[in-house]
Each structure stands twice: as C-alpha cells, then as structure tokens.
Amino acid sequence: MAASAHHPPLAAPQPPMGLRERKKLKTRQAIRRATYRLIAEQGYDATTIDQIAAAAEVSPSTVFRYFPTKEDIVLTDEYDPVMAQVLRARPADEPPLESLRIILTGAVAEILRTEPQEMYQRTKLMAEVPALRARMAETMAETSQLLARPIADRAGRDPDDLEVRVFTASVMGALREAMLYWAERDQKDDLVALVNRTLDTLKGGLTF
C-alpha cells in the first residue's frame, strides 16, 4: 500500500550510516529474511536458530547477538527509533493522539509498501503462535516506553508519569489489537484504516 496524503510515509532526517552500521543493518535483514523463508517452508516451531544461521550465512552466536530470542527475529524491525524521532519533530501544539496517529499509520503504510510479505507473515504468526503473541506484548511495552519520553517532554511531565504511561500503553495496545484483528480475518481489510478506526475508538470511547 503506497502512502498517501492521509498516510504519509514514516521519514525523518537520518545521519549517513557508516560502514559498520550498514553491515549491521544488512546482517539483521539477512537474518530476518532467512527466518521468514524457513518458517514459510517448514513452520515456526520446526525452525531452529542453527537453521536460521546457516541460511543467513552467519554463526548462531551472531544471530543471538542481534536477536536475543527467535521471537525477536520475527517481531523486531527498524522503525521504533525513527518513530520516536518523528514524534519529537511533530508540532508542539498538536494533540498527542493525533501525532501518534500520523506516525503509526505512516509506519504501517510504509511497511506494507516496502515489506508487504514480511508484514503479512509476521501478523499471521502473531495471531497463531502463543510464544509470539506473548513476546509481542513485551515488545509493545518497550515501544511504549520509547514513545513516552517525547510525549512527556512535550507535556512537561516525567516519562514515568502515570498518565503518560497509561496513554502510550493504550495507544500501543490499540495498535496490537488492530494488527491481530487484521490477521485473524485473513488480512482482507485495509490495515491503515483499521488503525485509524482503533485510534478513533480511543479518542471517542465506545458508543452504542
């Protein structure tokens, strides 16, 4: 799905990457691609770290250096630091929920545009594999903490402030539910529209 005026691509000025950083990124991407390919061929449970390492042409210790668990290979991407940076660049007077709406819908649209098959496979696995669903809750909490700091700075609060924690956790929880809902219904809906619908529910509450 290409980004539109309603779903701008997630972008932020990035400093040029050095050779070391480019090599690290290339290795992470190779490990992820190998993992998705093996899972598609033989299933999640049957896929081992040793197999992933061999397919990615790295050592098992290298896989663990980049990804502490097999679940992390499936769930981790490169977008969290960029989202935090873009969030800081949003207008100071913009409502926090609208800032996060722009960032999250932009990120989803960008992933669907550039890595659609990974997105389809990742969300399907999230819905089907209990270990992935459990780890997803942990990674969403980590993302929530990352986004809490720019939100707190804008509001003049501490990142550990209860209201800040509740707000960012609620948004990330809503995103998780939208992705699971999408996956459980065979990914037929417009995921960006589902994320918008989910955030509308947070904004307006449940009505009857």
From TrEMBL:
<feature type="domain" description="HTH tetR-type">
    <location>
        <begin position="25"/>
        <end position="85"/>
    </location>
</feature>
<dbReference type="InterPro" id="IPR041347">
    <property type="entry name" value="MftR_C"/>
</dbReference>
<keyword id="KW-0804">Transcription</keyword>
<feature type="region of interest" description="Disordered">
    <location>
        <begin position="1"/>
        <end position="25"/>
    </location>
</feature>
<protein>
    <submittedName>
        <fullName>TetR family transcriptional regulator</fullName>
    </submittedName>
</protein>
<dbReference type="InterPro" id="IPR050109">
    <property type="entry name" value="HTH-type_TetR-like_transc_reg"/>
</dbReference>
<feature type="DNA-binding region" description="H-T-H motif">
    <location>
        <begin position="48"/>
        <end position="67"/>
    </location>
</feature>
<dbReference type="Pfam" id="PF00440">
    <property type="entry name" value="TetR_N"/>
</dbReference>
<keyword id="KW-0805">Transcription regulation</keyword>
<dbReference type="Pfam" id="PF17754">
    <property type="entry name" value="TetR_C_14"/>
</dbReference>
<dbReference type="InterPro" id="IPR001647">
    <property type="entry name" value="HTH_TetR"/>
</dbReference>
<keyword id="KW-0238">DNA-binding</keyword>
